Fold SYT4 protein.
Amino acid sequence: DEIPTVVGIFSAFGLVFSVSLFAWICCQRKSSKSNKTPPYKFVHVLKGVDIYPENLNSKKKFGADDKSEAKNKSVMPKNSLHLDLEKRDLNGNFPKTTTKMQGSPDLENSSPKHFAERKKDSVSPDSFKSITSLSSEDKQDKLGTLFFSLEYNFEKKAFVVNIKEARGLPAMDEQSMTSDPYIKMTILPEKKHKVKTRVLRKTLDPAFDETFTFYGIPYSQIQDLTLHFMVLSFDRFSRDDIIGEVLIPLAGIELSEGRLLMDREIIKRNVRKSSGRGELLVSLCYQSTTNTLTVVVLKARHLPKSDVSGLSDPYVKVNLYHAKKRISKKKTHVKKCTPNAVFNELFVFDIPCEGLDDISIEFLVLDSDRGSRNEVIGRLTLGSSADGTGGEHWKEICEYPRRQIAKWHMLCDG
C-alpha cells in the first residue's frame, strides 16, 4: 500500500513541476518577443512625391528609443526633405548621414533679404514685381505672395519643386479672421502630376517647406512645361475656398546652375462665365407599372476648361430627390481630357411614391481632380418646379409614360 502512495505523490510533484516549467518558458518567449525590434519600418511614400520626413519625426518609430530619435534629429537637417530610396541598405534602412544637394542653399535660415539677393543674380529684375514698391492701394487688392524654389537633378533626371511659404494671404473665415491654407500644384499641359501640401490651420503666413520630386522628366522638356499653383483654404463644412492662383511658364528659366529661388504674387483666379457651361444630353423614361424612373446620361458637349490647361476630366453625378430630400445617387465614369464626353450610362431609380409630383432629379457635371475636391462644372435640374427646358422635359415624361424621351439642356452655374 505504501509503494503506490509514494508513486502517486512523486507523479503529482512531477506534473506540477512540468506545468510550472512550461509556463515559465512561455512567459520568457513572450517577453523576448515583445522586446524584439520588428524587422521593418513604416515609410510613407506618395506617387510622384518625395517622402515627408517631418511627418515621420512627429510620430513614434518602430523599435526606436528616445536616445536614437534624438540622435537622428540632430544629424538630419530640418530642411532635408529628400530621402534617396536608392541609398537604402539590404534591410531597407536609410543611412544616418545625409548629404546636401549640390548648389542648394539653406532655405530654413534664408530671410526675405536672401530671396531678393538670389533673384538679382539669377533672374532679371523686370520679370518680378517688388513687394516693397507696392502702394497702399495695391496692397489692398493683393492676395499675398508665394515663395518657392526650382531645381533639376541631372543624375536622376528629376525635377524638384520646393514650396517654401506664402505671406499676406487674405482671411477667408470672417469669424476668426484667418484661413486654413494649403497649395495644390499641377504640371501643365498634360496634368499627369498633381500634388498638394498639407493644410496649415489658422494662419495667413503659412510656412509649408515641402519638397516634391518628379522623376523621369528630361531636362529638354522643362522648357515646355508650366507650373500651376492653386492656393486654397480648407473648409470642413463646405467646398474649399479658392484664394488665388500662380502660373509659372518654365520657358526661359535656366536650372543648370543649381537651385533657383523665386516668388510670385498670387492673383485672382480667372472664373468662367456662366453663359459657357456647356450642354448635357439626357434621356428619361417613367414606368408607371413598376414605379421606376430610367435615366440615361448620353453626352456632354462644349464643356468649359476647368483650369489653364484647357481640358477637363468630366463625369456626371445624378441625385434623386423626394420632397427636397435626396434619396438616391449615382455617378458615371470619368472621361479623360475632353470637352465633349460620351457617357451612354443607364441608371434605374425606384420611386417611393405614386407619380412624379414630388420627385425631382439633379445632374451635376464635375471635373475629376485627384489633388483636391472635384469642381462643379455645371448643374441641371429636372422636375415639376424646374424652369426652361428642364420643366418642359419633365412634363413630357409625366404625360407620356413608358416612352424614352431625350433632350439637350444648357447647364447652369454650379
The longest strand covers residues 158-167. The longest helix spans residues 2-35. Confidence is low (pLDDT under 50) at residues 34-92, 96-140, 271-275.
